[in-house]
Design a protein that fits this description.
The chain is of the alpha+beta class. The protein has 11 helices and 11 strands. The strands form 3 sheets. Strands 1, 2, 3, 4, 5 and 6 form a 6-stranded antiparallel β-sheet that branches. A 3-stranded antiparallel β-sheet has the order 7-9-10, covered by helices on one side. A two-stranded antiparallel sheet has the order 8-11. Helix 3 packs antiparallel against helix 6 and helix 4 packs parallel to helix 9. The relative contact order is 0.13.
Amino acid sequence: MDEIAAKEIEIKGIASSFPFDGCLNNVSQLDQGHINDTYLLDYGEKRYILQKVNLSVFKKPVEVMENIVSVSSYLKLHSSGRVLTPVFSVSGVPYLWKDGVFYRAFEYIEDSYSLLVPSSEKHHEELGKALAGFEIALEGFDASVLHETIPHFHDTEWRLSQLVSSVEKDAVGRKGKALRFIDEILMEASYAKAYPFSARRVAHNDLKISNLLFSKKNDKAICLVDFDTLMKGYYDDDFADAARSSCSLTNEDENDLSKVGFSLDGFTSLSKGYFPKMRGALEDDEIEYMAYGIEKMSYELAIRFLVDYLEGDVYFKTDYPEHNLKRAECQFALFRDIKAKEKEIKDIIRLNVR
């Protein structure tokens, strides 16, 4: 029996623990995502997503699911669109523990697609609208009840200290290949500075464009997905991640750094979708730090990729030994272009918050 057939038998066995409608016709693995293993289950009239959760990243997966159920349930009551919906197992909980492995399932959102990089200005604007709608719908949700699923997730100062520690330990002997780049990262340490206000919002915390589903019928946003990092956080970080991911001229795996850059046209469309809907919801200090947040977020992700490279690729999935190093270099090139365009970014924000 080959590996693919064995995996399909395994997944079919797991699927029997969830009350899916119909008979299972096909199992296919999806390549999306850097963290979890994701499968699409075809039951004829309905399809479902089944995921094997990476326990090295999510050490308290039950708490992750408690956050997801709480927020998804709230969104169903307070938003008009479709919502990411967990499927409860036959045991009455939204997950399955089996042989030390953690699985969970979601209803598949039909007639949808996702993107790594937008292909039109409409995609940027729809991302802005979707983020604003998500935040407005959750304005009444008490963020303090959410579990901290990954400590220090967007604590950029802590991420920088983690880089310093990883360089000192050089656990897998990779430091030598990245010494010059490490120095370049450390020279920009001022961009790790925390916001001068506390976290007080419900934040998605992984608001890259690939976590937004678009409609195949009209290219409009359907809903945000991938709620694993739902925690108390900052609107600035979510908007920053939306901008960083959607306005990048390339995806995160681009090796030709000459192609990497930040699209001001895309950012204009994103801002047109986001800020008009958020009038009255954003505090003055949040608006003031929006541009800085985009710089901080791209700098932080460069650090995260670099740390994972130095520690032996324990967080992000990779296709080759230098993959995370190349991702870090790509993200740092994006950071530098964002930094160079800071004035224009601030002008666009100022124009759209009026």
